[in-house]
């Protein structure tokens, strides 16, 4: 308990009177204490001659709780007073009390109170952490929550943010049913544009055939061109994207809507699949051919050099005097792989072989003469 808690509503030491909503009695507070807690109150009490502070915007009970917190630092929060107190703290910039309320919102979230908390925080986008926790809790318990009366009090923005979430734990049939109930309960307060915005976030393509066919008689199909177009597009997607579907009612419904594109697409689907397989076979054949050519290109120089080495070994056995010449030619060919270098090496080799042959003939003739 704070030492200043005894100063609260002390008429003897106070210098400011606080007016409450619906009450003639005032609270006796202190200018210094109120100014240190809120810059809004500090600006209102800047004039020294001003000894009255008007706090009639919120109910008297909430105002007393918040002012007592400023003196004692203690407050008892429940599901009933949590959001009014936070709204009061947010309005008058009571940062400490605001943070305390936000922490309590996250710690006390349950399946029963998460929807009111989310509905309240949805209009305060700056509180991302508390808002995210509340939205996640609503998504996890959506099937049970959407049947509560507080669900029908959600704003259009809050409901749309729920429908955009991928963590919404419900089937698309349950989501559509909940949205239709929300529209029915909120009419005529909710505009047609808001109803269209909600229904366009429902994934009609994921609905069961029975629910999808039943929605055709909904009044929004007659009133809204956007909803009807979204519905028709979902029907076409069901027929074009899900091969082998045998839902006779869907096909009949499309025929009544005079949409031929879906049936043309489905009629050519098998042909497209065959063409795709043929194209894949041609592509594979081209890849194999390219791979073969690449391997041949890489292997050709190796085979050529291997041939050269074999020829050198054969010549070594036949023409032993010119063994060094062949090895010189090999080094020249490998060091200068260009066509000109190889040609020059071959010409030099031919001359050396011819001269060596002539020398051998002369040597044999001289030997025979002797």
Outline of the structure:
By secondary structure, this protein is mainly alpha-helical. 66% of the residues lie in helices and 3% in strands.
What does it look like?
The protein has helices spanning 31-37, 39-44, 60-72, 82-91, 95-107, 114-121, 128-140, 142-145, 156-164, 172-186, 192-199, 209-214, 220-223, 225-241, 248-256, 261-267, 269-318, 323-335, 339-369, and strands at 16-19, 26-29, 52-54. By secondary structure, the chain is an all-alpha fold. Among the domains are: 1-108, 2-Layer Sandwich (Potassium Channel Kv1.1, Chain A), CATH 3.30.710; 319-370. It has a three-stranded mixed sheet. β1 and β2 form a beta hairpin. α18 (323-335) runs antiparallel to α19.
Strand order of the largest sheet: 2-1-3
Ends distance? 138 Å
What would you give as the CATH superfamily of one domain? Potassium Channel Kv1.1, Chain A
Question: Which CATH class of one domain?
Answer: Alpha Beta
Backbone shape: elongated
Spans where pLDDT lies below 50 across 5 or more residues: 243-249, 257-274
Mean pLDDT: 75
Largest sheet: 3 strands, mixed
Number of helical regions: 19
Element string (H = helix, E = strand)? EEHHEHHHHHHHHHHHHHHHHH
Please state the structural category. mainly alpha
What value does the Rg take, in angstroms?
45 Å
The proportion of residues forming helix, as a percent range, comes to 55-70%
Question: Using DSSP, what is the number of strands?
Answer: 3
Strand content: under 5%
Which architecture of one domain per CATH?
2-Layer Sandwich
Give the CATH topology of one domain.
Answer: Potassium Channel Kv1.1, Chain A
């Amino acid at each position: 308990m704070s030492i200043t808690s005894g100063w609260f509503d002390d008429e003897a030491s106070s210098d400011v009177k606080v007016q409450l909503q619906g009450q003639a009695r005032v609270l006796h507070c202190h200018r210094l204490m109120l100014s240190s807690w809120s810059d809004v109150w500090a600006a209102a009490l800047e004039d020294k001659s001003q000894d009255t502070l008007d706090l009639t915007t919120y109910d008297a009970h909430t105002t007393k709780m918040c002012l007592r917190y400023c003196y004692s630092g203690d407050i008892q929060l429940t599901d009933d007073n949590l959001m009014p107190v936070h709204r009061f703290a947010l309005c008058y910039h009571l940062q400490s009390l605001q943070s305390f309320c936000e922490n309590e919102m996250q710690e006390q979230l349950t399946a029963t109170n998460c929807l009111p908390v989310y509905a309240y925080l949805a209009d305060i986008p700056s509180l991302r952490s508390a808002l995210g926790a509340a939205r996640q809790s609503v998504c996890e318990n959506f099937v049970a929550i959407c049947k509560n009366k507080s669900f029908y009090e959600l704003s259009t923005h809050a409901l749309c943010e729920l429908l955009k979430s991928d963590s919404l734990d419900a089937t698309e049939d349950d989501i559509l049913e909940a949205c239709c109930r929300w529209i029915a309960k909120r009419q005529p307060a909710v505009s047609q544009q808001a109803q269209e915005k909600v229904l366009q976030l429902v994934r009609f393509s994921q609905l069961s055939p029975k629910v999808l066919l039943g929605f055709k008689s909904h009044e929004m199909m007659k009133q809204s061109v956007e909803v009807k177009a979204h519905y028709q597009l979902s029907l076409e997607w069901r027929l074009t994207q899900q091969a082998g579907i045998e839902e006779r009612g869907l096909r009949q419904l499309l025929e009544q809507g005079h949409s031929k594109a879906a049936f043309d697409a489905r009629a050519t689907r098998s042909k497209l699949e065959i063409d795709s397989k043929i194209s894949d076979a041609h592509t594979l054949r081209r890849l194999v051919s390219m791979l073969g050519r690449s391997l041949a290109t890489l292997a050709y120089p190796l085979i050529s050099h291997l041939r050269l080495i074999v020829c050198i070994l054969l010549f070594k056995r036949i023409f032993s005097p010119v063994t060094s010449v062949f090895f010189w030619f090999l080094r020249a060919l490998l060091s200068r792989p260009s066509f000109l270098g190889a040609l020059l090496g071959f010409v030099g080799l031919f001359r050396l072989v011819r001269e060596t042959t002539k020398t051998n003939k002369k040597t044999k003739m001289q030997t025979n003469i002797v």
